[in-house]
Q: What sequence folds into this?
């Protein structure tokens, strides 16, 4: 994953900044991450979809059921 030099918060799913959408701060594995309300349900219900942007998410259980 490329890290731009600026640390402006961006949604981990859609890369929009807080200039465009409200961003919710989440902490995961010691990292500060940001996600917009539009993508928060993905983090809750289908975290594996974010695994390429959120290393370790493939091991998270979806909130609705385990597998
Ligand atoms: Zn988003």
A:
């Amino acid at each position: 994953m490329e890290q731009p030099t600026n640390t402006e918060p961006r949604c981990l799913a859609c890369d929009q900044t807080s200039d465009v959408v409200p961003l919710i701060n989440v902490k995961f594995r010691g990292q500060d991450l940001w996600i917009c309300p539009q993508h928060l349900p993905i983090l809750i219900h289908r975290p594996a979809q974010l695994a390429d942007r959120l290393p370790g998410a493939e091991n998270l259980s979806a909130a609705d059921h385990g597998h």
User: Anything to note?
Assistant: The first helix runs from residue 40 to 45. Strands lie at 24-28, 31-35.
